[in-house]
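Figure-free illustration: sequence to structure, shown twice.
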Amino acid sequence: MNCHQDAHCILQMQNLIPTATKSDLAKIAVDPTIIARFNPMVNLESRKSLRSSILTWLRLCVYEDKLTRLISLSKSASTDELLRELHTETVWDTDENPAWLVFEVENMLQIRQVQYTVAKHLIDHPGDVT
């Protein structure tokens, strides 16, 4: 460890610098500047790498939830419901829409293609509900 790491650890142990929670990681995915609250010494390259890792973790959380739904559906639902879940895939860019990814994780769901299409239309055409 170097002196900055030692100092950072001491400040964390004294609760003067917070330790990131899962909720904080989700916030960082949407706003990477929050990283500075936890360690102001992190350089830009490391911030980008951390955010990329957080987005990967969030994607994996969505897939874990999907597997849980598939297992449940395989035991109790019709084949049509199971196939619908199997065919659901992410059609939007998670890097450009991290808030949507966080929404999926928080609600243990996956945004379906038709839902994306409607949401994208409303975002691109505010007030157009036809």
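We now fold a second protein in the same way, so the two outputs can be compared directly.
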Amino acid sequence: VVNSKGKKQRSVLGLRLGSGAPTECVAFSAGFHGRTMGALALTSKEKYRTPFEPVMPGVKFAEYNNLESAARVIRKGKTCAVFVEPLQGEGGCNPITKEFLVGLRKLCNDTGALLVYDEVQCGLGRTGKIFAHQWYGEDAYPDI
């Protein structure tokens, strides 16, 4: 259990850097993952990133809820982890579609990438279930 988005992302990024294999991460447009240096690298909005550049390299961005966009950047042998919020809160309330979440699970299975859900803001019962991803069924479970 962590008490901030940044601490969770930093822990997972530490696993990435120590693994010796694929090192790229994928995150999505309009996401917010915290204010630590690693978490800022996963945040696409320039207003958060610019004051702290250069941020950690190796992060690719795809459009939220767009599986074709995600498939272009999630690559076998390159992508080690995919970070996504099942419910984005930074720019309003942007829920993920079931098709997108299940599709990400399949892409990660096919490429060997970890699927990491950032539920620091939408988890712990805030959507009516312990974790928001539980609304999407067994085919949409994360690795972390």
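Summary for the second example: The radius of gyration is 14 Å.
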